[in-house]
Write a structure and sequence with these properties.
With 388 residues, this protein is mainly beta. Helices cover 14% and strands 39% of the residues. It folds into 3 domains: 76 residues, no CATH class; 145 residues, Immunoglobulins (Immunoglobulin-like, Sandwich); 149 residues, Immunoglobulin-like (Sandwich), CATH 2.60.40.2550.
């Protein structure tokens, strides 16, 4: 009881050891250290400059055992330049932020139950292949902004948005699942703006080829929740013939270099944005558009011949049918894909403008087509949309 109160942690006897640990952490994550200086302003300016000048590089590694770690090294083909990057990565199972929490059981019951959600929601879940018979599902979901429950604390508005997605096999077993938790903290003016617009949520998860029923539940506290269900049919893909991925429709297109990016979030999120020729395409959560909208179609071609042949002719196009009459109302013709091909890469991301100026308001079915120079036709990919 008479011992003096310790207000500060004990300082280790050797500051050199601390600096070595700091140096190791920085070098292993692509960062740098600032110490042994009184120039605090100069250090902060260097940090600010680094935050605005970086490259995000990525690749698809070979399969490895869960828990295994691998070394990474980035080299430049030009001398006189220093490169800082992560020194490696480990193949670890994605985190489940809801695991073990009572909320997870509640949301599981909502996903598998018959009760409909109390919050209006829309959802799209196109997929693209990341390996033979493995697809990356791109989930886009939208709910009214005023449906998110905020609590006011110390002049700010806080909300926790929890999402659980489960892909059920025909026998009721789970084929794939993901969960996510987002912590929102807004100033009063930002909160007011938030409540006036739809809240858009996006995520990605992997699933094997097969037929599923996808159920996604979103909750921000309270009794209300949003629930969406949709069939998810992932066609088999062996990797040895021309194939198309799913179809994304969007009106949200931005130049990559104009998108504000948080460095840590970009490096830590295991997500692949949809990018074509320096433009990032954000999938719509509902394929309901206005006639005046500029609609873009995004998909991916998988052509194994590109790995071995220097020149491969590829064409893609689409047909639009009136759903009421099943009559074809537009055909784009074959669009050459050479401008989208990257040498040695069998995956060809591409985008096409959806021509709607001559279409009357109504419901339509778009069918995406592709063929190569050897007259091999890819399986068709249909998608439905409506014009107001």
């Amino acid at each position: 009881m008479n011992q003096p109160q310790i207000l500060l942690p004990k300082i280790p006897p050797s500051t050199t050891e601390n600096q070595q640990v700091m140096q190791m952490l920085a070098e292993g994550t692509g960062g740098f250290t600032i110490y042994n200086t009184n120039d605090l302003l100069g250090g902060l300016q260097k940090i600010a400059q680094e935050m605005n000048q970086f490259y995000v590089l990525g690749y698809v590694p070979q399969e490895s055992k869960e828990g295994s770690c691998h070394t990474l090294r980035v080299k430049m083909n030009k001398g006189g330049m220093d490169v800082r990057s992560r020194s490696g990565y480990c193949n670890v199972r994605p985190t489940n932020p809801l695991e073990g929490k009572p909320l997870e059981k509640t949301m599981e019951a909502q996903a598998g139950g018959t009760a409909t959600g109390t919050i209006q929601a829309t959802m799209q879940a196109p997929y693209f292949y990341s390996a033979p018979n493995i697809a990356r599902v791109n989930l886009s979901m939208e709910i009214p902004g005023d449906a998110v429950l905020f609590n006011k604390d110390k002049g700010k508005y806080h909300a926790n948005v929890n999402v659980l997605g489960i892909a059920y096999k025909p026998d009721g077993s789970v084929g794939a699942r993901f969960s996510d938790t987002l912590n929102l903290e807004l100033e009063k003016d930002d909160w007011k703006d938030f409540t006036k617009k739809p809240y858009k949520y996006q995520n990605q998860f992997d699933a094997a080829a097969g037929n599923y029923k996808l159920a996604v539940v979103l909750s921000s506290g309270g009794e209300g929740f949003a629930k969406m269900e949709a069939p998810l049919q992932i066609e088999s893909y062996t990797g040895d013939k021309l194939t198309l991925g799913g179809v994304v429709l969007s009106t949200n297109i931005q130049r990559v270099d104009e998108i504000p990016t948080d460095v840590d979030a970009t490096l830590l999120e295991d997500r692949k944005p949809l990018i074509v020729k320096g433009m990032q395409i954000t999938p719509a959560a509902a394929y309901q558009f206005k006639k005046a909208d500029n609609i873009l179609l995004y998909s991916e071609l998988y052509e194994p011949l590109l790995k071995t042949e220097s020149s491969v002719k590829l064409l893609a196009g689409y047909r639009i049918f009136d759903k009421a009459t099943n009559k074809e109302v537009f055909f784009s013709g074959g669009v050459p894909m050479e401008g989208f091909v990257e040498k040695g890469n069998a995956v060809v991301p591409f985008a096409l403008k959806v021509e709607t100026k001559d279409l009357a308001p109504g419901n339509y079915r778009l069918v995406l087509l592709a063929v190569d120079g050897k007259n091999t036709q890819a399986p068709q990919r249909p998608v439905e949309f409506s014009l107001n």
